[in-house]
Amino acid sequence: MNSFQHKLFAILITALFFFFLAVDVTIIFRPVNRLISPLVNALNPLHPLSEGKEGKEVFGFAPYWTFRQLDNVNFDVLTTMAYFGIPVDAEGNLVLNDPGYETFKSNYATEIFQKAHNAGTRVVLTITQMNNETIEAFVADEAAQENAITQTVDLVQKRGIDGINVDFEYLGDPGPEFRQKFSRFVSQMTARMHEVEPASKVTVSVYASAVKNPKIYDINALANGSDGIFMMAYDFATTSADNAMPTSPLYGYKSGTYWYDVSTAVDDFLTQMPADKLILGVPWYGYNYLVYEPAVKAETRPYYSWRGSPYAQTYSLASAIKPETEGVSTYKTGWDDEGKVGWKAYYLPDSGTWRMIFVEDERSLGIKYDFVKQKQLAGVGIWALGFDDGHSEMWTTLAEKFGIKLADNNVLTKIINEQI
Q: In sequence order, which residues have a C-beta less than 8 Å from that of residue 148 and are 6 or more positions away?
């Protein structure tokens, strides 16, 4: 070999040496990599709950009476579980001799809340009041408000959860001064909760008609004073309706078909508040009416009759109604193209009447979820978890529309306290 060939040979030998060394090192450390990679991924705040995420809230109420029916809740999709709930009395005391409190402090609730935390899902406590006189006395009394704030924030801290939802439902219009006082209560609750838990979230639930008919809700003030508003975009019709209609029609107001609808309510809200603070609550239930003939806007029979009465029915129970259901002689289905929801009807020979129910399903909810994204709202809400008992398709639709969620790192390592 000449000198050039010697140099070329030396370069080749050196290159081969480093090549085989690299291969050996890779082989040697490959088992270690298998151990390290999952650990690194687990510590990465974007793993594994960020893929495909639309950045939307999926906020689900978990009523104490469905708390044993949450097996198919997909915590990889659910961003917030709102436990429902504990009542507040006129003096601002949390009502502790209530099944809502008893369930909240139970060992089973501890397991569910911890399961949520382990998936990076926030858990918040809903405080409730539905009685007009109690709400009036409470809102008029600043000491009662302070009492409720102190007790609620203290309970949230002791339990190790992540925030509060305020759900006070008042019928009527008590006037602007009353709305101002209620807004002040929500604002002070939010400020106190943030003071003790900076990463906490405080939301307030309001009627979908709260701009059209304000009642106790000043939407602008509530949006400014809280972390978000949960619009209860349902009960546009209830059991007392004279005509069978969806409880949550997406459209139909502009045509005169319905007295109001979800899309109009959202547009009204967005004149008072930013879209990124509005959560659109949707119903996983419907109302089962007695009608003379099944059709959209069909006349309903009198509320009390030997033939029966109308009632609320969960998605799970409504799904069980089929042509072969015992006692059913005729079965029909249809679609309300304005309300954007399907219906089913069935004739009961024994009582001589039709029953008819509009109930949200994958198709109608998918349209509402697309509407949420189109309007750039904060996200979607669910009333209520457990109403889908035994059915996974509701979660499949949510996952398809919003993806796997981004875990909240503030709750991933939080431990739910058993003793409160």
A: 88, 92, 93, 94, 127, 138, 185, 189
